[in-house]
Structures are given as structure tokens and as C-alpha cells.
Design a protein that fits this description.
The structure holds two protein chains of two kinds.
Chain A (H helix, E strand, L loop, with lengths): L3 E4 L2 E4 L5 E7 L6 E7 L5 E8 L5 E2 L8 E7 L2 E6 L8 E9 L6 E4 L3 E5 L1
Parallel strand pairs in A: 2-11
Antiparallel strand pairs in A: 1-3, 3-8, 4-5, 4-9, 5-6, 7-8, 9-10, 9-11
Chain B lengths: L4 E3 L2 E5 L4 E6 L6 E7 L5 E8 L4 E4 L2 E6 L4 E6 L8 E8 L12 E6 L1
Parallel strand pairs in B: 2-10
Antiparallel strand pairs in B: 1-3, 3-8, 4-5, 4-9, 6-7, 7-8, 9-10
Classes of the chains: A mainly beta, B mainly beta.
Chain lengths: 117, 111
């Protein structure tokens, strides 16, 4: 099956610094990738849709200046958490879909555990 | 996209028993997917059922879909301790490729 790789799997950073998380589709091209955030024992919350070659589409309540998304190629999207604060500590997951229409299947990265101290 | 709601929120069974979890959604769909998430890990795609299908099997997994009731169920037969995870459903309306998830069902299989 298709593989989506996310890196790093864990990161600890100091308050005020920025952290970049990468999401790569390894064996297919993804014009669209998605970024989710998950709190402990909670559902995944869609943060934004990353569009290759254009601006990301953010969900309501998600600060676009804080969570910078870049989708520079068909196989790579990055999420940068800028000026991180402890409340940004969370589990971040990306996904990418191969193809489209009713047979679309989404593949997820393994997630990134961000801890801001 | 629309959100699926899983039920029950938590389920605890003995190894070897069957586990059934349900998903309800609100509007018409083209397909519905089930995912599994081990603690602190990403989601793993389990199975996709299309709106014109009523039942689908994959190994020990059996998924049903009732579009008239806007509900789906996931049955795991002969459960194993390794099946312990959270299970999420994701209904999808055609070309919309973003998925939204409910809170999931936390399945615990006791050895």
C-alpha cells in the first residue's frame, strides 16, 4: 500500500522556538495533503488542507500565522509551528490521498509528538 | 466532509471474543473508511466500503453499511490482545478527500 512518512516522530523544543514537521508521500504524488492535531484520548482535528503550489486552506480557529504550511512539491508538505508555546504540545498527523473520487483512500503518517517546554 | 461518530466510546473484551463498534453519520456518502490507531501512533487504514456495498470482509474484519440508517459497523472476530487500539470511522462524500473523525472507539482486548 501507499506510504506516507512523517518526520520527526518526536520533538521537544523550548518555548518561543519554531519546529518544522515534514510529511512525505513515498510512492505516489499528492496534490493535497492534510494536517491534523490530536489531543490525548481525543479525536483528530483537521487543521488545514495543504495544496501543492498554492496557499493552504485553514480550518476555522486555526491560526495560519502560527501553523505555517508549505507544499512545495507533489511529495512533500511541511508544517511549521512558529513561536511554540506549551499549549501547542500535541500529536500532529498528516495524511495524503492517492487518486480521487469514490475510491479515494487516505494514508496517514505515523504522527509527530511535539512537546514544548 | 462530514464527521462520523463512533459508538461505544470504550469497549473491553476478552481475547477470543468478537468486538463490534458502530459508526453513524449525517448526510449521504460515497464511501466510508475505518481506521485504527495504536496509542501515540498514526492511523492505519483498515477497510473502505462504498455506498453501493452492504458488507465487506478483510481477514478478521467485517464491515457493514446501511445507508438508509446512515450507519456502519466494524466487527473484529476472534479478537487478540494486539487488536487493542482506537478505531475511527471516516465517512466521505465523493471527491472530498479530507476526512474528519469522531472520538473513536477505544478497544481493549484482555489476554
Amino acid at each position: 500500500g501507499a506510504v506516507v512518512s512523517q518526520h520527526p516522530s518526536r520533538v521537544i523544543c523550548k518555548s518561543g522556538t519554531s519546529v518544522k514537521i515534514e510529511c512525505r508521500s513515498l510512492d505516489f504524488q499528492a496534490t493535497t495533503m492534510f494536517w491534523y492535531r490530536q489531543f490525548p484520548k481525543k479525536s483528530l482535528m483537521l487543521m488545514a488542507t495543504s495544496n501543492e503550489g498554492s496557499k493552504a486552506t485553514y480550518e476555522q480557529g486555526v491560526e495560519k500565522d502560527k501553523f505555517l504550511i508549505n507544499h512545495a512539491s507533489l511529495t512533500l508538505s511541511t508544517l511549521t509551528v512558529t513561536s511554540a508555546h506549551p499549549e501547542d504540545s500535541s500529536f500532529y498527523i498528516c495524511s495524503a490521498s492517492r487518486g480521487g473520487g469514490p475510491k479515494t483512500e487516505a494514508f496517514f503518517g505515523q504522527g509527530t509528538r511535539l512537546t514544548v517546554v | 466532509s462530514q464527521q462520523g461518530e463512533e459508538d461505544p466510546q470504550a469497549l473491553s473484551i476478552q481475547e477470543g471474543e468478537n468486538a463490534t463498534m458502530n459508526c453513524s453519520y449525517k448526510t449521504s456518502i460515497n464511501n466510508l473508511q475505518w481506521y485504527r490507531q495504536n496509542s501515540g501512533r498514526g492511523l492505519v487504514h483498515l477497510i473502505l466500503i462504498r455506498s453501493n456495498e452492504r458488507e465487506k470482509h478483510s481477514g478478521r474484519l467485517r464491515v457493514t453499511l446501511d445507508t438508509s440508517k446512515k450507519s456502519s459497523s466494524l466487527l473484529i472476530t476472534a479478537s487478540r490482545a494486539a487488536d487493542t487500539a482506537s478505531y475511527f470511522c471516516a465517512p466521505s462524500s465523493g471527491s472530498a478527500r479530507q476526512l474528519t473523525f469522531g472520538s473513536g472507539t477505544q478497544l481493549t482486548v484482555l489476554p
